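ok, trying the design again with the full structure, not the truncated one.
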């Protein structure tokens, strides 16, 4: 029994463990470069040689640009107004070990437009801008606009290939916010990886059986009796079995055993799901309230027929259990537990009367 439940726990746990690990690895890998540069500092753009420009996070004091060649805009669906979000400008990248140079681009938030335009008009006599961001490779559309702009300016195809780089610096509107976001995402990824590893260790070591063993210990029966109870228990649906001593179910990836002699109340809970007022589905569960437990055990059911089946079995097999729901019962259970327990729990002998368990 315990070995079977350990395997089942591991199998269920692995699904979420793999998902957590995949998300964690994805976040950690994607934001690792940014986290490195946030920790060690952005690279001064002027210190990069032309053949080093690829995927760095850089800082630059921009003094010149050669005009805008593209922008990114969004249209409001309700007002149909178009708003410019960012603009691409031509800038120069110079080599540190030779007089060689290349034209590339910088993508700035629209708020920089006036200053960038003034810089384009006045050249080195304009006000410089301190910018920081990440170097990215141009996609096909931006590269096409870049090429058209440069060739419209009078350079040949050969000169374009020789004197340009297909990269742009994506400038951050708020460097501090970007740094915090990057580090938070990276650390979240690391945390998810650690959590996935911890879940795997707990599942392999059998730690998820602790609550099950505590459930069993609460009524003090032998392991042999539990094994017999488990083997002879009636399976209601996948993952739920009703035995003489216990009702077995899965609480997430943790096996649990409800002591049947401690069950006070059981009823069906039906939840109707709606999206935009339209019914999208119905889920069923059985709520079981147990003496000494702070919360009810929630047993998910595949359908209403199965929910009613387990309630009929509880009613027939465990006569001390109140089966069924009403607002009056809810109020009595909440406001006057002693009175509720007098309905059946304290007045009916706690001996199973279900067939198949006689002289068990």
């Amino acid at each position: 029994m315990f070995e079977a439940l350990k395997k089942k726990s591991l199998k269920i746990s692995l699904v979420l463990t793999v998902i957590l690990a995949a998300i964690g690895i994805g976040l950690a890998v994607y934001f690792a470069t940014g986290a490195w540069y946030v920790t060690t500092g952005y690279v001064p753009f002027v210190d990069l040689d032309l053949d080093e420009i690829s995927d760095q996070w850089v800082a630059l004091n921009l003094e010149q640009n050669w005009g805008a060649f593209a922008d990114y805009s969004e249209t409001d669906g309700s007002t149909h107004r178009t708003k410019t979000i960012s603009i691409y400008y031509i800038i120069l990248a110079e080599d540190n070990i030779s007089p060689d140079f290349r034209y590339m681009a910088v993508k700035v938030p629209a708020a920089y437009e006036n200053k960038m335009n003034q810089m384009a008009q006045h050249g080195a006599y304009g006000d410089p801008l301190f910018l920081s961001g990440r170097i990215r490779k141009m996609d096909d559309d931006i590269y096409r606009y870049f090429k058209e702009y440069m060739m419209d300016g009078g350079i040949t195809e050969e000169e374009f290939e020789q004197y340009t780089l297909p990269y742009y610096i994506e400038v951050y509107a708020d460097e501090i916010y970007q740094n915090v976001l990057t580090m938070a995402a990276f650390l979240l990824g690391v945390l998810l990886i650690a959590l996935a590893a911890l879940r795997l260790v707990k599942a392999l070591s059998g730690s998820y059986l602790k609550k099950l063993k505590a459930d069993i210990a609460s009524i003090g029966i032998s392991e042999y009796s539990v094994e017999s109870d488990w083997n002879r228990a009636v399976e209601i649906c996948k993952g739920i079995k009703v035995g003489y001593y216990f009702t077995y179910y899965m609480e997430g990836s943790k096996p649990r055993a409800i002591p049947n002699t401690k069950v006070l109340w059981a009823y069906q809970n039906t939840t109707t799901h709606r999206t935009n007022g339209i019914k999208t589905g119905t889920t069923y569960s059985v709520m079981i309230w147990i003496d000494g437990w702070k919360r009810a055990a929630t047993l998910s059911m595949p359908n209403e027929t199965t929910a009613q089946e387990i309630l009929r079995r509880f009613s027939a097999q465990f006569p001390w259990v109140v089966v069924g729901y009403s607002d009056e019962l809810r109020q009595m259970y909440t406001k006057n537990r002693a009175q509720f327990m007098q309905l059946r729990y304290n007045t009916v002998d706690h001996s199973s009367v279900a067939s198949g368990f006689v002289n068990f």
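Keeping the full-length input from now on. The chain has ten helices and 15 strands.
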